[in-house]
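YM 10:42: Adenylate kinase sequence, as discussed on the call
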Amino acid sequence: MIIVLLGPPGVGKGTQGARISQHFGIPAISTGAMFREAIAKGTPLGKELQKYHIERGEYVPDNVVIRAIEERITQPDCSNGFLLDGFPRTVAQAEAFAQLLEQQQRRLTAVLDFEAPQELLIRRFSGRRECPNDGSTYNLETNPPRRPGLCDLCGAPLVMREDDRPEVVQRRLEAYKEKTAPLINYYRDKGVLYSVDADADPDVVFERVLALLNRLRGEAGKEIQ
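YM 10:58: structure's back
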C-alpha cells in the first residue's frame, strides 16, 4: 500500500498519517523529517542538503528531493508500502515519482486529499498558543491551558506566533490552494485522488479513511486474483 497525503496546513493530515502508519504497519515518511535526519547523520545527501538551508524554507531542487525519496523507499521497512506527507509538491515531482514507482514495478494506491472549510483552519491556527520559556503548545479550543493564558508547566504568559495570526494563516491557505491545484488535477486525472472530509473529530475522520483504504485494498486483491 502506497499512499500520498495532501491537504492544507492545519487540516490534520499529520495526525491521520500517524494513525494510518500504525494501523497498516507502513512507515510514514515526512520529507522535512527525512532531510533533518540526513543532515544530522552527515550522510552524503545530508551534506548536499546543507547547501540549501532548508531550516529557512529555501527551495530544494527536484532531483535532490527525488534522490532522497528513492533512497528512503528502497529501505526494508518500505517493502510492504509507505505513506508520504510533504511529497510530491508539484506536478514535476509527481511525474518523477511515478517513473520511480514504475522502475520498481510498484503502484500508487491512493492520494488522500484532506479538506476542511477555510474558516475552521483559520480558527484552529489562531487558537494556538505557545510558551516562550519551554516551547509547550496549547490550543484554546482543543487543548486549553488549565489557567487561561498561562503555561501549565511554568506559569509564563502564553503567546501567539506571528504566523498563526488570522491574516497570515489566510495568506498561507490561499498560497497552498494556488500551488497545489495543478497537483490535485494531475492525480484526479490519474484516477487515484480521493477527497476526505476532515471537518470532524479525528476518530471520525480516521474511520472514513480506514473504510476507504480497506475498500481499495479489497479491489486491488480482486485485480490480483
